[in-house]
Design goal:
- The complex is a heterotrimer.
- Chain B is about 80% helix and about 0% strand.
- Chain B has eleven helices and no strands.
- The radius of gyration of chain B is 27 Å and the shape is extended.
- By secondary structure, chain C is mostly helical.
- Chain C folds into two domains: about 90 residues, no CATH class; about 220 residues, MetI-like (MetI-like fold, Orthogonal Bundle).
- Chain C contains 17 helices and no strands.
- In chain C, helix 5 crosses helix 10 and helix 10 runs antiparallel to helix 13.
- The longest helix of chain C has about 35 residues.
- The chains are: A alpha+beta, B mainly alpha, C mainly alpha.
């Protein structure tokens, strides 16, 4: 089946700066796909390249199998939701939603019908006459989506649309967006720097850093099986210990770090002598018992967050190590400055190239 | 007396003198319009009358001049607003090395004395119409419109430039993304955004044209406008009919200003109502989310 | 002696300038990755045509070409229409000669009347600008930094109101006051300070007063706009550090407001120097103001080339003034043209 969007060796350069370096991937029809990465990683540039506002320096973008080179944004089967929504302030809600149809010459009756359908979809059925200024943040978001869906795009592109909303609303909108996407079945391409968003909403995620794709996979893949150090530390919280590999045995490896010798899974089959980092998630860190790998230091901080508590230990080399515990044991955390130790199992630790 | 009080007294004194200087002559003129004496004066008041207003409205030249001024003003608006808009849009798109050169040229009419604009307009069109055999264009009204528009377009351009600076380019992109052509974006999105600037530059253009003398007096050739008739009358001899004209103009402007203030206040109120509605909607939204999560 | 067939050449000048820029733009190396859309693509064809046509018409046919034609005419002799373009129509300096020597041929006498009028105009306009600055600065400062917003709006309204009345009428108002039977003379006579009414109009005092009055609004707005952008915290900080008020104005406010001062003074100077209405209405029989003389060259002497020459002299004076102000204040044109 043809991919909804195919990005084929895309490179985008601005003068001496390369924003996107040789990115290739395929996005499936009907998928909710996210690009996740810090500011400046190139995700916005890719989005603009797909929507037609940025010409590739090299490479090709295909939508529905068709090469988009030289085709302008007003002729591509894409619709973009801008970060600041860019709703037309001088038009009403209905006029905004119907704008794409209006410029395509759709007759008024058909237009009105489609607009009403969409108003129902976004639960604003009786608000069509209102001006944009009168709407709440969540309502504006929904109007932006309806406006984009009105032109029946093959691909809907969303540029960090939730970043301006406050927390509770943001979480609510995440669910809404996902629900809308499932109902309508259009391919969504979403960019964000918030990995919580990416993980909850997406079918697959592409983690990006400095113009390159670090890893593509679903939420489980990028969280539990990161392929690079960047992914391991960017997605979720992680403790990283850098060092050199000293011994390999089977799928495990021993790494000499500044807090001692540690053993973890060597899924990437790195050779002895390679500079690598061992990652262990805070929630996999055990407190109060001995384990396969042990770390000692002094108690630094206990941050109580209700359901979880984050215990921070200062290791001998000065670095901080975090263990996240659910439940009550915080009461038992020794006072600041006293000796404590953490432990973790080898099979919970991943060794990745430095 | 503290130094602050001294300052306040000095300030009040200064303001009194300043505004006295500013308004004094006009008040004098205004009062003289009602004085029966044939020579405009304020003191002594020989009697009160409205006859000067009557004489003014019956002054055929004045009325003809007024009609011409209104006609020219209208054409100046029709010409200057589109020219100003085009020049403003061009400013951001012109080849960067040519930009300062371009800027000097389009701003120069503002800095050029009006008489020179009037003279150069007449000289140019006289020669051009003679050479191209289109003498019918060599007409007072035509050249007054062109001469005035040369600097009034610059005023309009400056107003459009500041409004354009505030335009959110994302809207243009949104329009394109939805399938609009560049032409459609211009008419559906950009022009509505510019409407306040279009309106205010039109008003500015009309008023500037109406009261213009320096350029018009050269460009109008043998024809007349209100200001040229006025200048002629004042040179010949003075009657309070002229003061009456001033009173009328002031009255019209005051009425205009009041209307403007009323309309503006109403728009502000409506806008505030919309923003209040948005705020209320935000609160309701948060409430419903809270409720939903609680029951979940 | 060149035959004055300069017109086609004048048309060529701007065309050549545009062609040069166009070629430069075409061959400019483009930075990598920047999406370069053509002008017609960016605006859509109808709008692009409108932009080019409008800007070309305005800049060429309403600004540049008329000025060039006027300057060209100033170098032509005064000829009746039949003889124009004929053998006698040669480029000449005779109009400028007239300005200095009072005649197109002999250099015996010096045209004191016109020369005096010219320099008097320049000098008086300068004084008017300075006077306006001194008069308006306190109010502009007050409105920009001290007064509350509501009061500022009120004051602005108060300031604009008089200027809706035409400049001729405003000059006329001054005439009423300054005439021999006018208010000022009546007060002077009534108070016993003089025996006979003073001829303010004849000795130009009315004219200078009228000019000082006419362009105050320009000065106020320029100053207000400039001072308003000054961060009030700077003044407070200076006061905190113990600076006296005159120090604050001289070393903080005025240097900051330089562009506004420059633009205000330039505008007032040029409006005064080029003023026609006020001198016509308020000038006495012996008044020496340059622009009415210019007016006469056209409408009384019917000598258009000479009028063009005088106009060009006035233009040069204004341009020199602007350049001088820009140079002295180390400013650029963009800063003062607001």
């Amino acid at each position: 089946m043809t991919a909804a969007v195919e990005i084929d060796h895309l490179t985008v350069q601005f003068g001496l700066f390369t924003a996107v370096k040789d990115v290739s991937l395929q996005i499936r029809q009907g998928e909710f796909f996210s690009f996740l990465g810090p500011s400046g990683c190139g995700k916005t540039t890719i989005l603009r390249a797909i929507s037609g506002f940025q010409d590739p320096t090299q490479g090709v973008i295909r939508i529905g199998g068709q090469d988009m080179s030289g085709i302008g944004p007003n002729q591509r089967p894409t619709a973009l939701i801008f970060q600041n929504l860019a709703l037309f302030p001088l038009m009403t809600v209905s006029e905004n939603i119907g704008y794409g149809l209006r410029v395509r010459g759709v007759p008024k009756a058909d237009r009105d019908r489609k607009v009403d359908e969409l108003l129902n979809l976004i639960a604003l059925s009786d608000q069509g006459h209102k001006k944009i200024e009168e709407l709440s943040g969540g309502q504006k978001q929904r109007v932006a989506i309806a406006r984009a869906l009105a032109v029946e795009p093959k691909v809907l592109l969303l540029d960090e649309p939730l970043s301006a909303l406050d927390l509770k609303l943001r979480q609510h909108m995440r669910n809404e967006l996902r629900a809308i996407q499932r109902r309508v079945g259009v391919t969504f391409i979403y960019i964000t720097h918030d990995q919580g968003e990416a993980l909850t909403m997406s079918d697959r995620i592409a983690v990006m850093n400095r113009g390159k794709i670090e890893q593509v996979g679903n939420g489980r893949d990028v969280y539990e099986h990161p392929q690079t150090s960047f992914v391991a530390s960017f997605v979720g919280e992680n403790n990283g210990f850098s060092g050199t590999i000293t011994k390999i045995s089977g799928d495990q490896a021993e790494i000499e770090t500044s807090v001692g010798r540690l053993v973890g899974l060597n899924k990437k089959s790195l050779a002895v002598g390679t500079k690598a980092t061992l990652f262990i998630r805070p929630e996999a860190m055990q407190f109060g018992a001995q384990g396969e790998n042990n770390l000692s230091g002094t108690a630094a901080d206990a941050a109580y967050e209700g359901m979880t508590t984050h215990l921070t230990m200062k290791a001998h080399d000065g670095s901080s190590i975090v263990a996240t515990l659910t439940g009550a044991p915080a009461r038992e955390f020794p006072p600041q400055g006293s000796s404590v130790s953490f432990a973790f199992a080898t099979r919970d630790a991943l060794i990745l190239p430095a | 007396m503290s130094s602050k009080t001294v300052m306040n007294v000095m300030l009040a004194f200064y303001m009194a003198i300043f505004f006295g200087f500013l308004f004094g002559p006009l008040i004098v003129m205004g009062v003289s319009a009602f004085n029966t004496s044939t020579y405009p004066q304020v003191y002594p008041i020989e009697g009160l009358t409205l006859s000067w207003f009557d004489k003014l409205l019956n002054d055929r030249d004045m009325v003809y001049g007024l009609k011409n001024s209104l006609w020219i003003g209208m054409w100046v608006v029709v010409l200057s607003v589109p020219l100003g808009l085009a020049a403003a849009m061009m400013m951001s798109q012109i080849y960067s090395k040519a930009r300062s050169f371009y800027y000097v040229i389009v701003v120069s009419p503002v800095l050029t004395p009006g008489v020179i604009i009037g003279i150069s307009t007449v000289v140019f069109w006289r020669d051009l119409t003679t050479a191209t055999n289109s003498k019918f264009l060599y007409d007072g009204v035509f050249m007054a419109v062109l001469g005035q528009s040369s600097f009034i377009s610059a005023y309009c351009m400056l107003m459009f430039m500041s409004r354009l600076n505030r335009f959110d380019r994302a809207q243009e992109e949104a329009g394109l993304d939805l399938g609009a052509s560049q032409t459609q974006v211009f008419f559906h999105i950009l022009l509505p955004f510019l409407r306040p600037a279009i309106f205010s530059s039109a008003v500015l253009a009309f008023l500037s044209s109406f009261e213009n003398y320096n350029t018009t007096t050269f460009a109008i050739l043998a024809d007349k406008t209100l200001t040229t008739v006025l200048a002629g009358r004042v040179r010949q001899g003075t009657t309070p009919a002229i003061s009456a004209l001033a009173v009328l103009i002031i009255a019209v402007t005051i009425v205009g200003a009041i209307i403007y203030e009323i309309v503006k206040r109403r728009e502000d109120r409506e806008r505030q109502a919309r923003l209040d509605a948005a705020h209320a909607a935000e609160l309701r939204e948060l409430e419903s989310i809270e409720k939903a999560t609680h029951h979940a | 002696m060149l035959s004055s067939t300069g017109h086609p050449f004048i048309f060529l000048l701007p065309v050549i300038a545009i062609a040069i820029f166009w070629v430069m733009a075409k061959f400019e190396p483009k930075p990598v990755g920047v999406t370069k859309k053509s002008f017609f693509e960016r605006n859509g064809t109808p709008v692009a045509i409108y932009l080019i046509a409008a800007v070309a018409f305005w800049s060429l046919f309403m600004i540049v070409l008329p000025q060039l034609f006027m300057v060209e005419m100033s170098f032509r002799p005064k000829l009746p229409p039949i003889e124009m373009g004929g053998p006698k129509d040669l480029y000449t300096f005779e109009n400028y000669h007239y300005f200095i020597y009072g005649s197109t041929t002999s250099s015996d006498a010096i045209n004191w009347v016109h020369i005096k009028a010219f320099f008097l105009t320049i000098f008086a306009s300068l004084l008017v600008a300075i006077f306006n600055f001194a008069l308006c600065y306190p109010l502009a400062f007050y409105m920009a930094q001290v007064a509350r917003p509501a009061r500022v709006r009120f004051l602005l309204l108060l300031l604009i109101a008089p200027y809706w009345v035409n400049e001729i009428l405003r000059a006329f108002a001054f005439r009423i006051i300054f005439s021999s039977g006018g208010l000022i003379n009546k007060i002077l006579l009534g108070m016993g300070w003089v025996d006979q009414p003073i001829d303010f109009i004849g000795n130009d005092i009315a004219l200078y007063a009228g000019l000082g009055y006419a362009y105050m609004l320009m000065m106020i707005f320029s100053l207000y706009n400039a001072i308003e952008t000054l961060d009030h915290a700077q003044i407070e900080a200076a006061r905190d550090l113990g600076a006296p008020w005159w120090h604050i104005h001289a070393f903080i406010v005025i240097p900051f407001a330089k562009p506004g001062i420059a633009s205000g003074c330039t505008l007032v100077f040029m409006l005064s120097a080029g003023s026609l209405a006020a001198p016509l209405v308020l000038g006495g029989p012996r008044s020496l103001w340059f622009t009415p003389i210019l007016y006469d060259r056209f409408f009384q002497a019917f000598n258009w080339p000479q009028g063009a020459a005088y106009a060009f002299i006035l233009l040069l004076a204004c341009v020199s003034f602007v350049l001088l102000v820009l140079r002295l204040g180390r400013l650029s044109l963009g800063e003062i043209a607001k």
